[in-house]
Write a structure and sequence with these properties.
The chain is mainly α. It has helices spanning about 15-35, 40-60, 90-130, 130-145, 150-160, 165-190, 195-200, 205-240, 255-260, 270-295. About 70% of the residues lie in helices and about 0% in strands. The longest helix has about 35 residues, at about 90-130.
Length: about 300
């Protein structure tokens, strides 16, 4: 009799060849459900456009995002400057496009910090239980007692301002969410028959965690990851708005919003367009996350 060294769930005919075909089809059905959700497809379009814009920002900017032109201070939208110029004559569109790449960098690296640390801690606590799980739950509850932005501000105050500080602070604010969702998933999955079968044939705890339980928790983690990117963008923008994040003249959306708030009456476009960009991208990730949650919901896999 073969053990579990090959494909997961193969022991005791837990996953036969007949069941492997429906398993492959489930991903197609998930994609089909996602496509039927119009709002999630709008979110997917926004996210794809955001990534493409961020990756192509160095080639898309029509002007130097740092170049000042005092003759165009506060100038409104025109043929040459589609979104106008800011309080020192810099092209707003160029700064927005360049800020897209910076926002993507912050979002990706921050969510990887939260995902990596939170998933490991949550997996260990949920799988082993006992005193280890009690400590994990206690630490998570303590972290949840601080609002995300407040926790990020405390971290920035401790390590200083700048891009690196924003990434660390935003990533740390996501750790408790990943701990909680991973732990709850592991607690549920470790009681299933395939885990008992894996232990019976001598699989190590590390193998059970990485090869069997974690892949089954993947859909839930992906949904949280998508939603947390939106939250991280808001946290990073909030830090920059408060002067604790990316520092001027670097074109970051939150910093641009902060610079333009003093010109809302004379040149409202200086603050309007960065704020609109933050809103649209955040909305896109939230819509996509909601769509993925519905599409990956096991209760809908009928």
């Amino acid at each position: 009799m073969r053990g579990l060294r090959g494909k997961p769930f193969s022991l005791l005919n837990m996953e036969s060849q007949e069941k492997s075909i429906p398993e492959k089809r489930q991903w197609r059905l998930t994609w089909a459900r996602l496509m039927r959700n119009r709002m999630s497809m709008i979110g997917l379009g926004i996210v794809v456009l955001f990534f493409l814009t961020a990756l192509g920002a160095p080639y898309l900017v029509p002007h130097d995002p740092l170049k000042q032109n005092l003759n165009l201070v506060g100038a409104g939208p025109s043929k040459e400057h589609w979104l106008g110029c800011d309080q020192v004559g810099r092209d707003v569109l160029s700064r927005l496009l360049w800020g897209t790449a910076l926002t993507l960098k912050i979002g990706v690296f921050s969510v990887l910090i939260g995902l990596g640390i939170g998933t490991i801690i949550g997996a260990v606590g949920g799988y082993y239980g006992g005193k280890i799980d009690s400590v994990v739950v206690f630490v998570t509850d303590v972290l949840f007692s601080f609002p995300g932005l407040l926790l990020a501000i405390a971290i920035v105050a401790a390590i200083g301002v700048g891009l690196t500080a924003v990434i660390i602070a935003a990533g740390a604010s996501s750790i408790p969410q990943f701990i909680r969702i991973t732990r709850s998933s592991f607690v549920s999955e470790k009681a299933r028959d395939y885990v008992t079968a894996a232990r019976a044939v001598g699989e190590s705890n590390r193998s059970i965690i990485l090869r069997y339980i974690l892949p089954n928790c993947f859909p839930t983690i992906v949904v949280l990851l998508t939603i947390r990117v939106a939250a991280i963008i808001l946290i990073a923008s909030g830090l920059s708005f408060l002067g604790l994040g990316v520092q001027p003249p670097t074109p970051e959306w939150g910093a641009m919003l902060a610079e333009g708030r003093g010109y809302l009456q004379k040149a409202p476009h200086v603050a309007l367009f960065p704020g609109f960009a933050i809103m649209v991208v955040t909305l896109g990730f939230n819509l996509l996350g909601d769509g993925l949650r519905d599409a990956l919901d096991p209760r809908m896999k009928i």
